[in-house]
Structure formats: structure tokens, C-alpha cells
Amino acid sequence: MQLVFIDETSDTKFKDYFGISCCIINSHFYKTVKSDFQSILLKEKWDPNIEFKGSYLFSASKGDRSISIEKRVLIAKKILRLNVSVKHSRMKFYYLAQKSKDQRIDYLAYLPLFLDKILPKPKHTGSKDVICIQCDNRNDISNDEIRNSLLPVINKNGYTLLENVIQANSNFETVGLLYADIVGYLTSRIE
After folding, report:
1. Residue 153 burial (CB count, 10 A)
2. DSSP letter (8 states) at residue 4
3. Which regions of the chain does DSSP assign to beta strands (E)?
4. C-beta neighbour count of 12 within 10 angstroms
5. DSSP labels for 152-183?
6. In angstroms, rounded to a whole number, what is the distance separating the alpha carbons of residues 129 and 114?
7. Sorting pLDDT into bands at 50, 70 and 90, what band is 11?
8. How many whole angstroms separate alpha carbon 144 and alpha carbon 39?
């Protein structure tokens, strides 16, 4: 099963900047990735009640204020290194940047095109052609709207959607969304 985690990013200074970040994890690796991610945060004494997100990396006023910016960067490096494996990468990251005047409309328009380009070809054995899609919560778009925009792409690529698209508020438990957020934030800063 492919686990797809999607987050969007914008910029307060550049109002028309809009990015979509995606982290794809094969379910085979998910348990290890989540456990190791959470272990790093706990070992480094990050408060699990505070989200570890990209925009907090360089902020002295946001996130766990007991952790210095230098230490936050080191934590992020450790977390991103979890993708390294002897034989296979555990995660794949993708990023799309666009100019947008209406992020709601553009999210629904560009997300299916983006997903169509990045989805790996499914293996039609066992549950390897099942896909689970989890998006960071947006108050302006419903699960039904996201699902309806993505279903044609999911079907075209030979996948079966696990239940429904899920929108979640990211936190200590939503490791895939946190990865999408961190990579999206860092990539958008480079942009």
C-alpha cells in the first residue's frame, strides 16, 4: 500500500506563492519511520504536545521554545536522514510551486495533475495497489471535494483508494504530514 501525505505552503511576504508538498511512504516502511521520527523528538526533549513543523525550525517564538534554533536544525537533519536505507529509500518527496490568486481553486486544480505525475506504478499483488491519501487539514475544502478531484487520477493509475481521503490536523502522531510540511517548508525557502 502506498501512503500519500500532502501539505500546502504559502508565504506571507509573497502573497501569490503557493506550493504543494508530498511525501509518499510505502506502508512496509511506515512503522519504522514513525517510530524512529518520534524517538528522535523524544530523545531531543521536544515537547510532543507541540507540532514539529517547518515554519518552527528558525523561529524563536514558535514551537518548543526550550529548544534552540541550532538544535531544531539538528533534529530536522536527523529526521530527514531516516529516509536513508541500505537497499531502498523509505520515502519519496515531491514539490510543486505555482503562483496563485485563489489557493482553494488552485489546490483542487493542481493536486490531481501533481499526483498523476508522481504516483509510482502499482504492483497488482496483495494490497500493493491500494492507496491511502492524507492531507493537512484545510477549513476551506471538504474531504469530498479533494476525493472527487483525485479519484479520476487514482483510478487511471490503477489504484484503489483506501476508504476516503483524510484531512488531519498535524501533530506528534501524523508523521507523514510532518514530513510533507518540513520538506515543503524547506523547499519553499529555497524557491
Report:
1. 17
2. E
3. 2-10, 17-26, 91-99, 130-136, 160-161, 166-168
4. 7
5. HHHHHTT-EE-SS-EEE---TT-HHHHHHHHH
6. 19
7. confident
8. 35
Only one residue has cell 493537512, namely: 136
Could you give phi then psi for residue 109, rounded to 5 degrees? Answer: -80, -45
C-alpha to C-alpha distance for 182 and 188, rounded to whole angstroms: 10
- Tens of pLDDT along 75-123? 999 999 888 766 677 899 999 999 999 999 999 999 999 999 999 888 7
**Better pLDDT: 191 or 16:** 16
Residue 48 has pLDDT above 80, yes or no: yes
Three cell numbers, residue 49: 504536545
Whether the CB-CB separation of 79 and 57 falls below 8 Å is answered with: no
Residue of 188, 175, 134 whose CA lies nearest to 32: 175
Best CA proximity match to 118, nearest among 86, 145, 154, 85: 154
Cell of 96: 510543486
CA dist 153 and 165 (Å) reads 13
What cell does 7 get?
501539505
Instruction: Report which secondary-structure segment, H or E, holds 131.
Output: strand 130-136
Q: Are 20 and 8 in contact (CB under 8 A)?
A: yes
- Min mean pLDDT across 7-16, 37-46, 118-127, 169-178 is at 118-127
